[in-house]
Every structure is written in structure tokens, then in C-alpha cells.
Design a protein that fits this description.
The protein has 154 residues and is an alpha+beta fold. It has 4 helices and 9 strands; from the N terminus they run αααββββαβββββ. The strands form 2 sheets. Strands 1, 3, 5, 6, 8 and 9 form a 6-stranded mixed sheet that branches. Strands 2-4-7 form a 3-stranded antiparallel sheet, with no helix packed on it. It is extended and about 65 Å long. InterPro entries: SoxY (IPR032711), SoxY_sf (IPR038162), Sulphur_oxidation_SoxY (IPR016568), TAT_signal (IPR006311).
């Protein structure tokens, strides 16, 4: 076997590839226990360690449709006024009636614009919460979304 393709080099390459593949799984694993909880209050408490979450509706703009035409893909937009609430660290979306209430959590670096647009899945008509973590604390804004097939609000 040539020196380029020796057993040792192949094993080293496989180990390096395995480490690279495994890294994102551990580097981005955040509070997996909270993501698996089915109860809204328990998931919220576990995710945020029982910290107080203040009303942030004066500094958080939460845009959701009144009626979700497709609950499987509901558009949500959040904009944070950092002058009022402080530097943005993360945004967590939670839907009260979903089987797993925590829909998503996004982390922000200091140079990123403090806004986000994404899609979340809803299990039915529910309150959707955007919980914002800043350097000053935790803040929340909420909105009820009626989830109906085809957007009929009846």
C-alpha cells in the first residue's frame, strides 16, 4: 500500500470526518429536555430556568396572521427594539397547544439586525409567544392565531 493511502491515513481521515459530522450535533444542542416536553408551562420553565419573563410588547414587534391559512407553515416575523430592551441574544418561539410547545430557538451575534422571519407549524388555534433574550433580561410578546384548514375563519 502506498504511503498516500496507508491504513493509518485512512483511519485518521475517517476519524476527522466523524468528528466534523458530530460537532454540529453537539455544538448546537441546547436544552434538549425542554424541547421534548409536551406541557407549555413546563417547557417554558425548563427552557428559561424559571427566570422572570417581562412583558416586552412595547419593544417587540410580533407579526403573525390572525388566521393561519396553512397551520403547517405559518409565517412569523419578529423585530426587537434594542434601544428599549437591550442587545438581542436569542428569540424562542412557543405555541401553547403544540405537542412540543417550543417551535424554534434562534441565536444572534451582536452584528446581526435584530429581526427574524421564519415559518412555524401550529397544531391548532393557539397563543404564539416570541420570547426574546437580551443582555438586560427576558421579554415576551404574544398573539393568538386561529389555525384553520384553507384559512376559513368559521
Amino acid at each position: 500500500m502506498s504511503k498516500l493511502f496507508s491504513r493509518r491515513r485512512i483511519v485518521q481521515g475517517l476519524m476527522a470526518a466523524a468528528a466534523l459530522v458530530a460537532m454540529p450535533l453537539t455544538a448546537f444542542a441546547r436544552n434538549s429536555e425542554a424541547f421534548g416536553l409536551g406541557d407549555f408551562a413546563k417547557a417554558r420553565s425548563t427552557m428559561f430556568g424559571g427566570q422572570d419573563i417581562a412583558d416586552g410588547s412595547d419593544g417587540i414587534t410580533l407579526e403573525l396572521p390572525d388566521i393561519a391559512e396553512s397551520p403547517a407553515k405559518t409565517n412569523v416575523k419578529v423585530k426587537v427594539d434594542e434601544a428599549k430592551l437591550g442587545a438581542l441574544k436569542s428569540i424562542t418561539f412557543m405555541a401553547e397547544v403544540n405537542p412540543t410547545p417550543i417551535s424554534a430557538k434562534f441565536y444572534f451575534s451582536p452584528r446581526v439586525e435584530p429581526e427574524l422571519e421564519t415559518f412555524i407549524k401550529l397544531a391548532g388555534t393557539t397563543m404564539v409567544h416570541a420570547i426574546v433574550e437580551t443582555d438586560k433580561g427576558l421579554y415576551s410578546a404574544s398573539k393568538e392565531v386561529k389555525a384553520t384548514l384553507g384559512g376559513c375563519g368559521g
